[in-house]
């Protein structure tokens, strides 16, 4: 599966691939090697000189994640890389500001929503008995 969206107000594009075929298709579109990364996650940044737009390409190998918690960790990790790469491309520094936190939050939430097979179910916490 793959998905793509525009990140406002940055006028950038976020692309997401979760299987080798989609990774290759997206990479070929930018004239890059279609080889699938050995890593379970990767984020690349490309500048399109024709449109003057930054493209962040996120790879998460869903098949190599047997548990939802490890999948969410990789998605969060790559979401941070996508936000950092986007801001770096705009000449902005990463800091602990709310603007950076909200961008990481937005990207990570979008990635989670577009990850095939990922279902998050909240259950009440187990209560501890006090002696």
CA-based shape: globular
**CA-CA gap between termini:** 51 Å
Low-confidence stretches: none
Question: What's the Cα radius of gyration?
Answer: 17 Å
Please report the number of helical segments.
3
Number of domains: 1
Characterize the main sheet.
4 strands, mixed
Task: Please estimate the helix content.
Answer: 25-40%
Determine the strand fraction and express it as a percent band: 15-25%
Order of helices and strands: EEHEEHH
Protein structure class: alpha+beta
Mean pLDDT: 90
* Widest sheet: strand ordering: 1-2-4-3
How many beta-strand elements? 4
Chain-wise SSE layout:
Blueprint: E1 2-7, E2 12-17, H1 20-29, E3 41-48, E4 53-60, H2 68-89, H3 98-113
Parallel strand pairs: 2-4
Antiparallel strand pairs: 1-2, 3-4
Helix pairs in contact: 2-3
What's the gist of this structure?
The protein is an alpha+beta fold and 131 residues long. 37% of the residues lie in helices and 21% in strands. Helix 2 packs across helix 3.
Descriptive keywords:
131 residues; 37% helix; 4 strands; alpha+beta; 4-stranded mixed beta sheet
Q: Could you describe the 3D structure shown?
A:
- With 131 residues, this protein is α+β, with helices and mostly antiparallel strands.
- The chain has one domain.
- It is 37% helix and 21% strand.
- The protein is built from 3 helices and 4 strands, in the order ββαββαα.
- A 4-stranded mixed β-sheet has the order 1-2-4-3.
- Strand 3 and strand 4 form a beta hairpin.
- The N and C termini lie far apart (51 Å).
- The model has no long low-confidence stretch (mean pLDDT 90).
């Amino acid at each position: 599966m793959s998905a793509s969206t525009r990140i406002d107000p940055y006028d950038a594009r976020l692309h997401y691939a979760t299987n080798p075929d989609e990774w290759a298709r997206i990479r070929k579109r930018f004239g890059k090697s279609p080889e699938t990364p050995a890593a379970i996650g990767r984020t690349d940044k490309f500048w399109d000189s024709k449109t003057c737009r930054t493209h962040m390409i996120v790879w998460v190998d869903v098949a190599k994640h047997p548990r939802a918690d490890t999948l969410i960790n990789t998605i969060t990790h790559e979401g941070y890389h996508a936000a950092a790469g986007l801001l770096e491309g705009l000449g902005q520094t990463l800091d602990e500001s709310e603007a950076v936190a909200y961008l990481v939050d937005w990207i990570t939430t979008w990635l989670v929503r577009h990850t095939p097979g990922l279902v998050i179910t909240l259950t009440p916490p187990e209560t501890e008995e006090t002696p």
